[in-house]
Amino acid sequence: MLSILRSLVQEVNSARDLQEALDIIVSRVQKAMGTEVCSVYLLDPATNRYILMATEGLYPDAVGQVTLAYSEGLVGLVGSREEPINLEDAPSHPRYRYFPETGEERFRSFLGVPIIHHRRVLGVLVVQQRENTRTFDEGEEAFLVTVSAQLAGVIAHSEATGVISGLSLTGEEARDVSFNGVPGAPGVAIGQSVVVYPSADLDAVPEKAPEDVEQEVVLFQSAVKAVRDDIERVAERLASQLRPEELALFDVYLRMLGDDALPGEVTNKIREGIWAQGALKQVVQQYVRHFEMMDDHYLQERAVDIRDLGRRLLSHLQERGQEQLEYPERTVLVSEELTPAMLGEVPKGQLVGLVSVKGSSNSHVAILARAMGVPTVMGLVDIPVNQLDGKELVVDGFEGQIFASPSDDLRAFYQAICEEEDELIRGLEALRDQPCETIDHHRVSLLVNTGLMTDVVRSLSHGAEGIGLYRTEVPFMIKDRFPSEQEQREYYREQLEAFAPNPVTMRTLDIGGDKSLTYFPIQEENPFLGWRGIRVTLDHPEIFLVQVRAMLKASEGLNNLQIMLPMISNVSEVEESLHLIYRVYHEVREEGYDIHMPKVGVMVEVPAAVYQIRELAERVDFLSVGSNDLTQYLLAVDRNNPRVAQLYHSYHPAVLQALVRIAQDAHVVGKPVGICGELAGDPGGALLLMAMGYDSLSMNAASLPKVKSVIRSVSREWAMQLLEDVLLLDSPHVIKSCVDLALRNAGFGRYLRPGKSNSAAYAERAAS
Ligand code: PEP
Ligand code: MG
What we know:
Layout: H1 2-13, H2 18-33, E1 37-44, E2 49-56, E3 67-69, H3 73-81, E4 85-87, E5 107-117, E6 120-130, H4 138-164, E7 178-180, E8 182-185, E9 188-195, H5 213-238, H6 244-256, H7 262-272, H8 276-292, H9 297-321, E10 331-335, H10 340-345, E11 351-356, H11 364-372, E12 376-378, E13 392-396, E14 401-404, H12 408-428, E15 445-450, H13 453-461, E16 467-471, H14 473-477, H15 485-499, E17 504-507, H16 534-539, H17 541-554, E18 561-565, H18 571-590, E19 599-604, H19 607-610, H20 613-619, E20 622-625, H21 627-635, H22 653-668, E21 673-675, H23 683-692, E22 696-699, H24 704-712, H25 716-726, H26 732-745, H27 758-767
Parallel strand pairs: 9-10, 10-11, 11-12, 15-16, 15-22, 16-17, 17-18, 18-19, 19-20, 20-21, 21-22
Antiparallel strand pairs: 1-2, 1-6, 2-3, 4-5, 5-6, 7-14, 8-12, 9-13, 13-14
Bound molecules: phosphoenolpyruvate and magnesium ion.
């Protein structure tokens, strides 16, 4: 059973389009189950009707012609109940609906299972059988449910491919259909997409036509030659160490690279109009499928060799093709998984939007994007990334959705939102030098989170009073080795100088989890519960000591440095870190530097720290809550996983209760407490935190003017009442709506995109 399923999924995965995928499904399922009919009906979002999309056993002419309303017939019943329906005599069921054009009057038994993807019913998979033969048994029902669950993602993906090309399920023109992910960084961008993909990853190669066929052929031939040379060299080197039968593997490789084998087929495809990388991908995938389906275990294993060869050829092709990557004036960078390094590749001033399949709004790349003010959508799981290359895209970072090849009307609609947003930001510029103080004179410090030098420039122009979190891992991430002490010192000095005499809080290296350094990979089953933050640096004092030394030396003459320790879950980690910091401090002074001992603080990011606030606070100068991680750990929701993004909620009552407790306990010991998670940059979140008594709020520069204008317009008393009210509620969504309503009533509706969803507003406008 498993092997049938595996080969079915593989075949469907490599179908060229949705129709081919569905045809494969019905024919393979019909055969595997030995039924007379297998059909698939998909729910067309445009008409909300089920369409018979493919069948094996009903009259073929009925495909595309037979449609049912959302709750019509047995198909509608399966869809609306969201569970299988297994009937011995379907025509006698009150919901049976007969379509003469299908010829289905011959069939009596009926088994239908819904196709559901991320809670959305995509369609219904049906098998039918003639009278007096048999009903479907439990095993068959379970098989069909398994097939449907496995294929739902593939169908969603193929459906999306059609939509990107501007086609609906029925092949009609479908414009302005949105793809939904999660908001990564607010704002709207309209630009041209550039798909960046991890190198030497065949699956990620996009479909493209070659600019010059002959040039592509030459490029491919030279890649073949280079790989042949590599293999011959390796074989020669290993000749004395391997037995002849082991060395024969290299001959297999070289034979595969013979002119009439793989290279011949790839060249033919290039001549048919596919660029070399795409042609290679198609041929390798064909071979791999072929080998994987073989019953012989030895031959199945050969698929691995083909894939390896494919990767080698691709890597040579990419080496040569690399300089061809061009970034348009308004680049929207799209990738399976965006990395900070990819952002750095785009020439200055040309990056307007970001789209990532993996990750969620609290992934580090989203945080970077917010710091840079680049509208971003994350977690677009069903998007066929490869199809987006070169397309015009609208990125709606408020709602977490994108549109490919927008109509003129939709483009104009979003253009107007961009202009409105610019105007709003310009209007806030006047607040730059005003203090962040409520109308009843409660003062809060507004600080910024930084990582790159561009953040610093933006922060200064937005009137930040210092840096509440400098993520030192950012300069580490954009290098290909650990930066030296001198290099670190230069990075740190820039940040310290830009804000002096205001405080600059530098967090010691916080890697692990989703923040990896290419040159220091950490492979773990469970990285967020593993070797992260302070755990890594205490195990590697040589990294920690160099970093602290660089920070202290950089602070000479400025004395505005504060050091902050990430991922603290034990008092002993604070004590060990303090010991190392003191040691470096004395050494650096002995070297003749005129420095002051910096203030040292602890980040509160894990539940253990919440219950040890007093013990921690007694040992350090300040506390700062990392609400991004604290939310993740309190709610047991991976901050990067788009599947559970709906459960990640910083307005969750448990998170709010923890935040209240932290502020109270820190103040009991007389230590200042701030917050540097994303909640601080959310106008509603900032109000609640100010009411809780947080002394400072540190956020991305783009959010700062909005937060300041909200805080300056209310009284602390009003905010405390709001806090008291929401602490009585038990649903994060109701709490959020309550805070939004309060903001709206206070005149800040404009800060609340999406107040009314942009796409809903557009649909309303288009209909009128
Ligand atoms: C946090 O966890 O809230 C935080 C500020 O740190 P980071 O997002 O860098 O993990
Ligand atoms: Mg953190």
